[in-house]
Amino acid sequence: MPADKAGIEYAAELLKSGEVVGIPTETVYGLGANAFDEQAVRKIFKAKGRPADNPLIVHVSSFDEISPLVREIPELAKKCAELFSPGPLTMIMPKSDRIPMVTSGGLDTVGIRIPYDKTARAVISACGFPIAAPSANLSGSPSPTTAQHVFMDMNGRIPLILDGGGCGVGVESTVISFEGEDGIRLLRPGFISVEDLKEVTDNILIDKGVLEMLGADARVSSPGMKYKHYAPKAEITILQGDSLAFNAYCSANSDKFDTLMAFDDSDCEGLDCKVLLLGSSGEEQAKRLFDTLRELDKIGAKRVFARCPELSGVGLAVYNRLLRAAAFMVIRL
Ligand code: AMP
Ligand code: MG
User: Fold this and answer.
1) Is the CB of 139 inside a 6 Å radius of any atom of ligand 1?
2) What is the pLDDT of residue 230?
């Protein structure tokens, strides 16, 4: 249904009766359910095929709605909320008893986000309870950035998808936790960048799971990072270097790939193969990444060379997702 008044009312009705609904947000589409209702939350895990120890983010529509959900709100969290909420930032805090263990994936903490998207906010307000929502893809697939993506993965599994058009940001929220008086740990990079967070504190630690491969049995601070994710059928190799180096390496190794994932035309000059372009800026790349990963499957790509995003700004988020899609295969040129 379109994300208009009638759609939002119907979504709220379904959510109140314990159902799961596909909802647009500014990051990616979410699969929402009443965060307080264990049975409803279980349906999310079932629809996605998501491991039970992978926690869900709880979405509220204003800062005041956070305090009943947590045991304390760190001072730094208040500062982050002032600067970046509503927006694509998830803050991990010690959870109160109001949040069932099913929702937090068995953890004693809960990730909370106040989305900026007007449909997401309208749905939460109409429900009057917080909405637990992970990305609305099948576990392991690229996150959905259009209602059509959600339909591809969830058709027959959920009763409703609200169609709010393409997502403005395109990658999932930045996830942070707090350490000591003034420390922030980056668990998952997103649109709110390390550079942005430095406005709040200089003491920012990038969690190991952001850039390194973690074993399936690893005890990690951000459980989602240990699972295989975003993976198309094609084998992707990331080539890290500038446009000239990328072009030269591809020319010299033209028998080793059938498709290129590049930024713009200049990366692929003189190369005769299928090309998918992400755009030159980190923001464009974030917006197009997941659709492009789905496109690789559609065009039957088998071996892909992908140009490596910048490791700063939102580029770090693009790199973090692409690394997982490429099973951590990186060649430094
Ligand atoms: P998704 O919404 O599918 O992107 O998944 C949410 C991700 O947020 C999880 O996979 C975790 O990596 C992270 N997350 C959510 N809640 C917590 C938490 N309490 N502690 C640590 N990480 C969390
Ligand atoms: Mg996800």
Assistant:
1) no
2) 77
Contact between 131 and 110 (Cβ < 8 Å): no
pLDDT of residue 117: 98
Query: Ligand 1 atom closest to Cα of 137?
Result: 3
Pocket test for ligand 1, best of 44, 54, 191 (most atoms within 8 A of CB): 54
Query: Given the structure tokens 């959510």, which residue do they identify?
Result: 15
Spell out the residues 6+ positions from residue 213 whose beta carbon is closer than 8 angstroms to its own.
328
219-241 burial code (b ≥16 CB/10 A, e <16): eebbbbbbbebbbbebebbbbbe
Say what the pLDDT of residue 177 is. Answer: 98
Instruction: Quote the pTM value.
Output: 0.96
pLDDT at position 201:
97
In this predicted structure, what is the pLDDT of residue 224?
66
Residues whose CB is less than 8 angstroms from the CB of residue 197 and which lie 6 or more positions away in sequence, other chains included = 80, 174, 176, 184, 186, 204
- To test the ligand 1 pocket, which listed residue (153, 175, 221, 321) has its Cβ within 8 A of the most ligand atoms? 175
Nearest protein CA to atom 13 of ligand 1, as residue: 222
246-253 long-range contacts (CB < 8 A, ≥24 apart) are 246/305, 246/307, 246/333, 247/271, 249/305, 249/331, 249/333, 250/305, 253/305
* Positive/negative CA dihedral, 181, 133, 227, 96: positive
User: What's the pLDDT at 220?
Assistant: 65
CB count in 10 Å sphere of residue 261: 30
Q: If the chain, 333 residues long, is cut into consecutive pieces of 10 residues, what is the mean pLDDT of each piece?
A: 98 98 98 98 97 96 98 97 98 98 98 98 98 96 96 98 98 97 96 98 95 71 67 92 98 97 96 96 98 95 97 97 93 96
